[in-house]
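INFO batch 0412 | record 1 of 1 | parsing
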Amino acid sequence: MQRTWRSPARVDLPSGWLRQVKQAYPKPYADILAQLIWQRQLATPASLAGFLEPDRYQPTGPEAFGIEMEWAIARLQQAYGNPDDRLLIWGDFDADGLTATAVLWEGLGQYFPQSERLFWTIPDRLQQSHGLNIEGLEQAIADGITLVITCDTGCGDAELLQWARDRGLDVIITDHHTLLPERPPVTALINPRQFPTDHPLATLSGVAVAYKLVEALYTALPLPDVQPLEHLLDLVAIGLIADLVELRGDCRYLAQQGLQQLQQLSQVRPQASRRPGITELLNCCKRQGDRPSDIRFGIGPRLNAVSRLQGKADLALQLLTGRDPQVGIRLAHQVEELNQRRQRLQRDLLRELEPQIQQQCDRTALVLVGEGWHGGLLGLVAGQVAHREEKPTLVLSLDPPGTEPRLARGSARSIAGLNLYELLADQRSLLLRFGGHPQAAGLSLANEHLPILKDALEQRLHLHPPDRHLAAIAPEVTVTVADLDRPLFRALYALEPCDRLPQLEIRRCRLQRQWQSSVGSGLYRRQYWTFQITDDSGAIVQGQYWPESNAETLPSETDCCDLVVELDLRIQVDDQRQRDLVARLLAWRLHQPVASEPEPVLLDWRSQTPDPAIAAHVVTTCPWSWEELALHWQQAQRLQQPLALAYPPPEVEDLDRAWRQWLGVLRSLAQRSQPVRWSSLSDRLGWPIDFLKKSLQIGEPLGYHWQISSEGVLLTWPNWAQLDWQTPQVRQTHHQWQRLLREWQRQRQFSGEASLQTLAAGLHDRYNLRTSEPA
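INFO prediction complete | emitting tokens
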């Protein structure tokens, strides 16, 4: 897929915002820092101080989880007072699940003797996969376990949880995965999915949820000699960052605090470290523990390598929790060796796939199938291929010949602008097992269904191709070569920990003194380019480019280019304490002058008196979405008039009142015998039609039925009077609907508050609608 290149739009920051950022960050490039925070919507004027200085952030307490947390703590207090209670931590094998298990092992271990009343188990990645399983639960009962505490898993295992409840086994779930429509039969369910999307706890990963449980227990049962709670934060940072959750709110705060703990571990010898295994692992991967990349590309892949190759993750958990320096050093070296082996096997598998990739070069989706491939590596290789080829990719390993039925099992990875979960869900009838999220999935199907699946995916993607807008090259700010120095890096570093490094555009520059280098040897050698970036001012900075394949080249040294780079630190091979600044090249093109064609006009009459002398298409109601704003712009274009935004700030509706109003509308619809037009419903409620349609879909568990015709929507609800409004299913529907409304309200609030330049840039980016403010 050919990617478009969108240069950064000019951003006019709100009055006072730049001044406030400069006060909080009185150093060079505060203007770029202010622009990035504003564009990414990372902080508000009220939250800016806590964003830039973690000591000024007000974290959210575990009591925010409400009654579920109270039930969990009450059960743990009961177990603390009952010596016959035996507790089992049921974890998961990826970095988030491992660190969550370690947090509960250490945190609960302050109250329950480890290996006497407190135990842990983690499924085998290759034999059992994620979640609960009947064999493990049966073994727990046989071992006298009375209370299971899950971490990073459990929400989707309703049948197994009912089986456990029927046999007297209590379960506390700590998880962050999707909630089922009905609450499972458990003692307590602690999951941040219960919160609205803008809640400071909404994006917690599994390890952070486990930490909140321990934090609540520390408060409820204070003991004199417990391990300090902050000693768990290094584990929390590893799990949070490795799991790639959105680092905002309490997630960002916990990651900041945890990175400080990791940095302290990296500065001592393993023999003097409270976590010798982690300290030695940092030494092995030449990291200092102070940046998210140290986890994403250092610790995280190494922890995951254990279960990918061995199935069992015991070795990794022992490394995280062990205190013996000699054992910790030995385990770290074992983990490092496993990761190196994982890298070799991954490269071998990728090389084996190349002929299939070339054979399917004309296909929109790649389905790569073979025999005997290592199941722990399929997702990694699928991600590599998807990124390089810019196509959704399935990598499947066939059962041995003669197996009946012969299945293909594996993983799928997506690309920007494509919801992989929806793509595969449309083919659910072909799949025996399927689960995942918009960017990744696991699946299995019968071998004979593979040709059908390939054709079905191809047809679906031709009808609904990926959103090219989301796959575009989109640098965030434009800088010069001279800007690429330590002061700018320090300003960008103020954003960390963040989900991605800022992408910087440099215009009219050249790549000179290019030479190739390599790491590794033989079949495992990787080549990369180093060069100098220079421009007409004479400024020079070191650059580096790691191509996806040897076929990729750089422009000639005489070409005038535009670049997209990330400014980062490169670790010296011979001295991991020495880190040099480098501009890592992401994309390049031959220089293209900025277009100067005349553009239609946008007028901002939201905060000023409309000019009666200007004939304009006036918008008096705040749009709910970009699509709505684009329709207004296109109408103004047809009228050959400016588009004037003249709406007042939108009011935020009370969610409970809006829910009651919506229920009243549903009952009114159910009492009619004829369809109602969408436009009538929208005018009556003041809500957009797309929101109404999604609301009807969310509310289906309430028991009504609806259908669409050319005349509108017809709804029947035969048993609404007998509906029990206190059931978990109804409460869940209530919460989901309120989350939906809140999300739409946030979009509308953005339309009301965003600057004219930001709205103009958004219209251009999404719909190629070029606009400008009047000269």
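INFO post-check: The two ends are 38 Å apart (CA to CA).
INFO record closed
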